[in-house]
Every structure is written in C-alpha cells, then in structure tokens.
Design brief:
Layout: H1 5-21, H2 29-34, H3 55-61, E1 76-87, E2 96-109, E3 118-126, E4 131-140, E5 148-160, H4 173-177, E6 186-197, E7 200-207, E8 224-233, E9 241-251, E10 260-269, H5 270-273, E11 280-290, H6 293-300, H7 306-311, E12 316-327, E13 332-342, E14 352-364, E15 367-378, H8 381-384, E16 394-402
Antiparallel strand pairs: 1-2, 1-16, 2-3, 3-4, 4-5, 5-6, 6-7, 7-8, 8-9, 9-10, 10-11, 11-12, 12-13, 13-14, 14-15, 15-16
Amino acid sequence: MNFTVRSQGFYAFFVSIFLLLSQNVEARPEFALRHNLNRCTSCHFSPAGGGLKTTTGKLYGAHGFKISKYASQDFVSAEMRMAHYNPSNRKSDRSGLFMMSGIVGGSIAITPEEENTEVRAVISHDIYNSSAWDSYLRWRFFDDTETSWAPQYILVGRFHAPFGLLTDEHRTYTKLQTLSNYNLKLEAGAMLSGQPFEAFHYDLAVVNGEASNAALAPGNAELWGGVSNFRFSSSSRWFPVTVGMSYKFHDRLEGQKNPWAGALYGMFSLERFTQGRIKADVIFEYANAKNFNDKASTSAGFPVDATYKANILDAESEGIYSQVNFFLTEKLILQVKYDRWLFNKDFPADAFEKLGYGLKHYFEANSLIMLRFESSRIGRPEEQVAPHHRADDAAWVYMQVGI
C-alpha cells in the first residue's frame, strides 16, 4: 500500500488504542449465529433485520457495558457514524475524516400492550444526509414464542430488503453488485415474514421499483419487483450452521431489460462446534446477477473505463464475500475479509478483488470502532491506471455510537 509516513503513524496510533481498550473484559449475523438466534426480532423491530433496535437489542449490543436510562427503552433511538478514509491514490474529496450518517428514529405500539396481536409504527430518518430511512407500519399476529406457516409479521412502508447476508459494510462487493448495500438500497413496498419452525424463517416482499425512496416520481407506478429470502439455522452442536438463499427481480419500463439476482449464504460457528475452545466463525456469500451492471457500476463508481463498462452492461455477474471473525475478547474481534466481483463471470481474469484485515472493538454500550487495511487486485489493465477509491488499496477507521 502506498501510504505516507504520517498516515502510517496515524493508524499505528489507533492500533495502540485498540490494544489498550481491549484489556477490559450492533446486531450482526455472526452474533445471532453465536447464540443460535434465528429471529431477527430478537434484537430488531424488522423481522428481516437491520434498522432500529428493540430494548433487548440495545442490551445485547451493550456487550457487557452498562446501558444508560436514555437507551433502555423502545420509543427513541439514535445513531451516529463517522470514518477516516485513506485510499492509496488519494484525492481531496475521497480521503480524510468525514461524517457518514446521523439517524434518529422512534417506535410506538398503536394497539394496547396487553393484546397478543400488535400494530406498531416505526419511523427513522438520516438527518445528516436529509434522507429517509426505515419507516413502516408493522402488524404482528402472534409473539415470538410461537411458530406457524402463516405470516407472523406484515410490514408496509420502507425497509431494508431481505436479500442475502445483512451487513452494513456497504463497500462489500456482493452488496454493490446486487444493489443491496445497507446504507442506500432500502425498498418501499410490503413484506410478509414467518417462522414455520424455530429453525426456519422466510421473508416475501413486493416492492415498488428498485430501491425506491417511497416518494412520488414519474414512472414509479409502472415499476415493481419481488424479493424473497429463506433461512435455516441449526441448533446442533455438531452442525452449528446457518444457511440461506435469496432471490429478487424487478420489472423495468417497457423496452428495458428486467434485472434479477440470487444469493446463497452460510455461517459456521467454530465456537459452538468446539464448545468455546475456538471463538471464531466463518461467513460466506455467493451472488449471481443479470442486467444489474449498469446501475451497480454507477452506484459503485467502477469500472471507470467507458469501453469496458459498455461491454459488460448485459453480462451476468458473479460475486463472493467471505469473512472470518476471531473473538479475542467479548469486546475485541480480529476480522479477515475477502471480496471478489466479476462483472462478466465468463472472464475470471478480469476480477476485482479485495483482501482486508483489521480489528473491531466495542468501547462502550452500542458503540464501536473498526480499523481495516485493504489490499486490492484489479484484473483489467485499463482499470489499474487510476482505480476508483472503492477498488483501490485503502486503510480506514470507522466509529459508530448509538442509543
């Protein structure tokens, strides 16, 4: 990596802070895997996961720290994110310290608390970017102690689509490839979610357009799509896995090609398999997509070569995301992550690849710092000349604070 001495010293300082803070003895898929949770509503209001947390989710996200009285309630939540980003080929508008988001939200049950069924309003907004976030009405027909093939939840509004592994690392290649990156690609529509067995969960959604912001716009009435997700989680010590599959498609305007995408994903808990002797887990996702390259490349910012970009518009793409988490302590996690994106799966030599390693540290309740070093490889020679910052070597520090 081509980092300056000042940058190397800056990140070395953060490494020392990590090590000092870790001497003290956000819900993510790997944490659900560790504790054999197959209901996202264990921590979130949305049955598909992501978005505002319940009081239980906030307590779990405390990671052993005491939680304040302002956070220990369901009614109001807030979250702030910032990062220091340092790509190898730095540009004035693509490096340095910057705010990412400032999200404020609320939740309130419309029906009386003593009733088993519930209607709840959930609304949130990114006030820093002046953009809509999760906002929906949620119907719950029975509580989380019951199972049934019938839908347990119905959501109507704007929500995080139930596609693949839910990760808020929005630079993950499979998320960019399938337009399912957490921070931008929310969907507006209706979603049914059910739990036929404790080990099996499903989500079925009909959405308006592609990542619509639920605002009125010309042509939106002619656009629609569907998203489905099916997930199985084993409670067996000898088979401590979660596996799932997702599919989505969109019906575009007349004369435009309709895109589709599919994903297969899985998680394996070494901690449960070894009964705590090896505190680690492995995460994997494979994605395949068609007719997404035009919007995906525009959203991602690469490829930058106009000729190559024109040649891959109608190609079928392929993406891989894998990650290993080593829990050094309950508050400090060593992470190794690999991304691969082929805009045309028939030409594997053209792949965009990225290997990252770093630390995640929970320094306070629902508050974390991440440090990551990323090394990239680009197969296309013309893309190597002036790579986009998302496809370049980089080092970054990320901080998230929530209540």
